[in-house]
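Postdoc handover notes: sequence design on the structure in folder B. Input tokens:
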């Protein structure tokens, strides 16, 4: 087995530890065995950030957040801050190798992070000194260790075949006819996984995934939020995460919607309840905050009820030119959401035209689905700011002495961010997977990525 740690290293908010309960495991069994090929099907590109169920099996970060919300060591074994969080030093784990057998070094880590985060990074500068990676910034970086656990900061190394290698428990073995093959990394720093290999069928339609699962041709398939209820009614074995994907409107405040009142009118006009009840079949949570309720405990303080009268009042009789609403995805469900939002805004007196993502260079409103790529409230709000390119906002507050003081500081900070209405949060959605009967002990991490640390396959009878 791999990824076993006895103690926590690095600070994480007490509030998260108290609120985050462990996720359920699938088909627990006391005596797992080695061997077998696990079959996964997905609609996404297997290397797509955040959406891929296999990316985090090949690539690892410096830190990781487990299913209970605890920050754990990964490719870094220790981290310390200096100068009131303006400087961080992370010690790199010794004896780790990329899949091409080249050594993991602090220099390789720094080069990977400079390549993957060349702009709008949580740090201003990064460099390697001995076996440490040093992060510095003019602004405080209180959330850096948690942010480094995110999918956007995994460590990669250029391979000889023009691709990239990771250090994870599985490594690529080939790609043919839409099937990506991964094999167990027997030299993984924390021990090899139980499963010998993974076959990933990519670009697979959801209906075909479900058919293959029922026929025994697949072991893990996707279940989007709007289909979770249906999957359970069909008696599928479903693993469901907490709400970890935010559906929100990104508002272009430099054009037609430069007026704060017009931006706030849009937020008041949207009927989040219909999105939750009808389109997403009562899965997830309605929200007007950047971080979900289960993580912060204060999301309920942000009003989510539609107020059409207030929308008209804020608009003040102004008749702005036609607004353009685009969707940052080809997802059919988000297209339905955009249509409902356009209807809401027309009822509030706005003239709205809906375009596909590629139809406009810069829309007035952009509907996005953004994953929660952090395991603590402060880091979550900061990562959401970066995802929505909200670079003008003030920095998150420094860590406070107590969890209560930190929660109060984060609430005040988030209220300031949301009040500007350049981002209008709508709903947080869970992510789900259905698994076959031979899969044992599969877990979901806090960010809903698949954790195969203990997963094995039932022997054929």
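Designed sequence:
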């Amino acid at each position: 087995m791999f990824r076993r740690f006895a103690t926590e290293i690095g600070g994480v908010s007490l509030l998260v530890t108290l609120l985050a309960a462990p996720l359920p495991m699938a088909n627990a069994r006391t005596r797992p065995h080695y061997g077998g090929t696990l079959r996964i099907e997905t609609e996404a590109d297997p290397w797509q950030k955040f959406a891929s169920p296999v990316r985090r099996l090949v690539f690892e970060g410096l830190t990781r957040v487990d299913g209970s919300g605890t920050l754990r060591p990964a490719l870094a074994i220790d981290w310390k801050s200096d100068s009131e969080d303006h400087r961080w030093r992370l010690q790199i784990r010794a004896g780790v190798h990329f899949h091409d057998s080249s050594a993991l070094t602090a220099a390789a880590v720094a080069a990977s992070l400079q390549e993957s985060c060349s702009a709008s990074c949580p740090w201003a500068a990064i460099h390697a000194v001995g076996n440490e990676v040093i992060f510095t910034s003019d602004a405080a970086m209180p959330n850096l260790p948690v942010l480094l656990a995110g999918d956007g900061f995994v460590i990669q190394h250029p391979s000889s075949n023009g691709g990239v290698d990771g250090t994870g428990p599985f490594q690529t073995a080939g790609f043919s006819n839409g099937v990506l093959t991964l094999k167990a990394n027997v030299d993984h720093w924390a021990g090899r996984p139980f499963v010998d290999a993974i076959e990933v069928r990519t670009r697979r339609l959801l209906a075909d995934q479900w058919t293959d699962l029922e026929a025994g041709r697949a072991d893990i398939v996707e279940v989007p939020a709007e289909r979770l209820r249906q999957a359970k009614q069909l008696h599928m074995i479903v693993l469901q995460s907490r709400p970890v994907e935010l559906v929100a409107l990104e508002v272009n405040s430099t054009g037609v919607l430069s007026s704060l009142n017009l931006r706030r009118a849009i937020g008041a006009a949207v009927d989040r309840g219909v999105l939750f009840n009808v389109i997403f079949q009562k899965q997830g949570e309605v929200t007007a905050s950047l971080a979900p309720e289960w993580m912060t405990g204060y999301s309920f303080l942000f009003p989510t009820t539609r107020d059409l009268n207030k929308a008209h009042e804020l608009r003040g009789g102004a008749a702005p030119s036609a607004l353009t609403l685009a969707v940052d995805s080809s997802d059919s469900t988000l297209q339905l959401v955009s249509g409902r939002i356009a209807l809401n805004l027309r009822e509030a007196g706005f003239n709205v035209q809906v375009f596909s993502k590629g139809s406009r260079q810069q829309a007035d409103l952009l509907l996005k689905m953004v994953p929660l790529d952090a395991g603590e409230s402060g880091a979550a709000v900061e990562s959401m700011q970066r995802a929505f390119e909200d670079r003008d906002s003030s920095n998150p507050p420094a860590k406070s002495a107590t969890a209560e003081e930190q929660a109060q500081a984060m609430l005040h900070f988030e209220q300031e961010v949301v009040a500007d209405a350049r981002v209008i949060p709508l709903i947080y959605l869970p992510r789900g997977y259905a698994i076959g009967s031979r899969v044992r002990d599969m877990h979901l991490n806090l960010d809903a990525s698949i954790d195969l640390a203990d997963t094995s396959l039932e022997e054929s009878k």
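Context for whoever picks this up: The chain is about 25% helix and 25% strand. Don't rerun without checking with the PI first.
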